[in-house]
Write a structure and sequence with these properties.
This protein is α/β, with parallel strands linked by helices and 502 residues long. The protein contains 15 helices and 15 strands. The chain has helices at 3-12, 23-34, 50-61, 83-87, 111-121, 128-159, 165-177, 182-189, 209-221, 243-258, 306-315, 333-341, 354-375, 417-434, 449-457; strands at residues 38-44, 65-67, 73-79, 94-102, 227-235, 261-262, 269-276, 279-285, 323-326, 346-351, 384-388, 403-407, 441-446, 463-473, 476-485. Residues 1-28, 154-213 and 215-221 have low confidence and may be disordered.
Length: 502
Amino acid sequence: MSDVQEATNQLLDVNLHENQRSVQVTESGLRSESEHLQVTIGATVPTGFEQTAADEVREKLGSSCKISKDRGKIYFDISVESLAQVHCLRSVDNLFVVVQEFKDYQFKETKEEVLKDFEDLAGKLPWSDPLKIWKINTCFKKKKTKHKKINQNSSKEKIESGRGDKTDERDIKKEFTNNVLDSQILDYYENPAIKEEISTLVGDDLTSCKDETEESSKEETDPEVLKFRVTCNRAGEKHCFSSNEAARDFGGAVQDYFKWKADMTNFDVEVLLNIHDNEIVVGIALTEESLHRRNITHFGPTTLRSTLAYGMLRLCAPQPTDIIVDPMCGTGAISIEGATEWSNCYHIAGDNNPLAVNRAANNISSLLTKSQVKEGKLSWGLPIDTIQWDICNLPLRTGSVDIIVTDMPFGKRMGSKKRNWNLYPACLQEMSRVCRPGTGQAVLLTQDKKCFTKALSGMGHLWRKVHTVWVNIGGLHAAVYLLKRTPQTFVPSEQDGERPPW
């Protein structure tokens, strides 16, 4: 039995319905009840990269994947044993377990009738299995929270040179003695083989260890009343109701059915009501914040999401020993994602702005520190370097780079549309010089599509457009272009003058 399967079985042994004193009585029943549980998981992904995410699910989980008509969502079936691997997917932003899907929901003609149907729907849905998955997921989040608090307390002890040692040691002992399976569960979800830091599951608003101890003792005497909210995401023009109205009436029915307490901010359960034309999907959220917040701690004005960076890298299918360059790296999101997932390649992150290079270096340092804390030993580092340079005059040998992946200036927050007319042709010219003829590739993201198309039209002898992915970034309609370097040798123009020896 693999380490992952063994740890999952240990996780399933934990009683998720009652307090610690009754674990031994019901653990076998819970195991048999949940071991063969099959559920449908929904995931939000960067728009345009749905197929990329589906390919990753098929490759890493062995599950067939359905791409929703509602852009930016995919659905796939898993067993409960695969829940940890789902959280390790690099291409997904948020996860939820599907309660029920209605592919062709027939809406009534009037608003009152539609909202009444939403109220009646709450009591007819198969909540049981999705709530079991939610409880298993929540159990892990509690363990992760405890682990994070302990690390924070340990850091404080070192900084304060021993002050308050007795109090911290007492709290830490309580955390470790609360459940004998804590370390085993944490080892499972933090296994370096899984190669993912899942701390994004836990919000930043963590209470103190003392507060948690008091809460746990209170739970033993008082029955727990869950707090919830309903979030409605609606797309379509033929609806006679608003998202708020649907969430309000459906949420009221959910409250009456479960006797939960409504809370819009400090909720335990987030019920999702996704409506796209005549398609309705009811789900329960499994992530509190997007999984794209996994690598970056030092943000810049235009930080790229890690999930989008992964999708761009996957387009060019990196091979072992490839040299991958991001010549306009910003915070280094693309190169860091590449070094994490494709560690058998060498990644270079460069920018002309010293502040950007400094942010990228700090993000790499933070990731290494996090990795060392997780593994409990010194890390060998990541195959990545940062450098300050001029994008139009890169200190790289001609034909030495296999792949170029970068987020080009949109001309909105950074640069200007006017400057792009000169910048884009110069960038493509220099990229064609350093990229290997015949095999080199470039994946370039830009919102200034008109300027890029014009620049590319003058480089037809050096670059061939293979594929275009249309994406939505913060409400801006952008494009990711996959280019292939032609076999033609780069010949510097007379305007270039004398170049450095590289």
